[in-house]
Design brief:
Helices cover 44% and strands 21% of the residues. It has helices at 6-13, 36-42, 53-65, 80-85, 96-99, 108-117, 119-126, 142-156, 174-190, 199-202, 212-238, 244-251, 269-277, 305-317, 348-352; strands at 2-3, 27-29, 47-52, 72-77, 91-93, 131-137, 160-167, 193-198, 255-263, 292-299, 324-331, 338-344. Helix 6 (108-117) packs parallel to helix 8 (142-156), helix 8 packs parallel to helix 9 and helix 13 (269-277) runs parallel beside helix 14 (305-317). It starts with a strand and ends with a helix.
Length: 353
């Protein structure tokens, strides 16, 4: 690993000490000598991903297909058929004796009760975790009711709970949206960070004639990519590129966040950053109200330092001057070029109304 002079780099970008938040370094890392499993083992870093309900199950199946094999996955559902079809080896059938495998009937109260009844099993699975991702769709039964229970168990065990959720389309009606907002509020109270993917915002990726299935699949893609990039960020800390104890402090009570993702097949980090800042999911997000930004840059081995500095400057100029920034830069061994933004610090009530 080769560290930047953080103070000089912050000064170059006009950040003052904003980029020095929690003493996390700007770092240029080549964390490629060890596997994910070896890195996690070295620092005893344990990350678990929990998928609740139908949406959570589909997202975890996609992550498994993406090759994230050294992370511990568990799906939880009251729908037996969904569990049987899942690729995930670790499964919990919620409410098995009550539902006979037929789900929660879109009732969050049942989702809550069935998950709470499995608290002992869930605690056993989550024990020893450093970070727990809770993936679910808000508005239905199992995910809406069960996600806050899992997050609370994770926090009680000393882990960092991170929710990654979708919100329903506006055309699905006020009842489902109200359920989603109530579930989101409960999840917020039990989580350190929530990455929210509103389905209405996902429509911005497509022309008016888009198929419903394409929008739903895009939501799953965004969730899977967000989890994968955060996994990479955390595992970079396990390799010594960042201090994991500082990362845990950084994510404590971070609140609601949105993701912006950009890549460039021609390996230009400048174009990747521009794509991330112009990400369609962020079109209706009030960036002027954001107060914290985590920027993860992956560059090719041939990328110039000046371009990385300029790419960081592009990000900084998109946000208010008092925004806190964390930049992490790594050289990708496959020469992949990608920029990922996690934008947070919004007032909660402004974000869910």
């Amino acid at each position: 690993m080769m560290n930047f002079n953080r103070r000089e780099f912050c000064k170059t970008l006009g950040l003052g000490t904003a980029g020095l938040l929690l003493n996390l370094p700007f770092s240029l890392s080549t964390c490629q000598r060890k596997s994910r499993k070896d890195l996690a083992k070295d620092n005893e870093l344990t990350i678990k991903v929990i998928g609740l309900g139908g949406l959570g199950t589909r997202c975890l199946d996609q992550m498994i297909q993406m090759g994230l094999k050294d992370i511990e996955f568990t799906v939880m559902n009251a729908d037996k058929f969904s569990l049987v079809q899942s690729l995930c080896p670790s499964k919990i059938h919620l409410g098995e004796s009550s539902t006979k495998g037929n789900g929660c009937g879109m009732n969050p109260e049942l989702g809550y009760a069935y998950t709470l009844n499995s608290q002992e099993t869930i605690t056993t699975i989550l024990r020893g975790s450093d970070i727990v991702f809770i993936v679910a769709g808000m508005g239905g039964g199992t995910g809406t009711g069960g996600a806050p229970v899992v997050a609370r168990i994770a926090r009680d065990l000393g882990a960092v709970p991170i929710g990654v959720v979708t919100m329903p389309f506006s055309f699905e009606g006020k009842w489902r949206l109200r359920n989603a907002q109530e579930g989101l509020q409960k999840l917020k109270e039990a989580s350190d960070l929530i990455i929210m993917v509103p389905n209405d915002f996902v429509i911005n990726f497509f022309p008016p004639q888009v198929l419903l299935i394409d929008v739903l699949n895009k939501s799953i893609d965004i969730i899977s990519s967000s989890v994968k990039n955060l996994l990479d960020f955390f595992l970079a800390s396990a390799s010594g590129c960042l201090y994991f104890s500082d990362v845990k402090n950084l994510f404590s009570r971070l609140g609601l966040a949105y993701a912006g993702i950009g890549s460039d097949p021609e390996k230009s980090i400048l174009r990747a950053v521009q794509t991330a800042t112009d990400y369609p999911l962020l079109k209706d997000v009030p960036l002027s109200r954001a107060r914290k930004v985590i920027c993860i840059l992956r560059v090719s081995s041939q990328e110039r330092l000046a371009n990385v500095q300029y790419a960081s400057e592009i990000v900084v100029k998109k946000f208010p001057r008092d925004t806190d920034f964390i930049f992490h830069v790594s050289v990708d061994k496959s020469d992949r070029t990608e920029a990922v933004l996690f934008i947070s610090g919004f007032a909660w009530e402004q974000s869910v109304s």
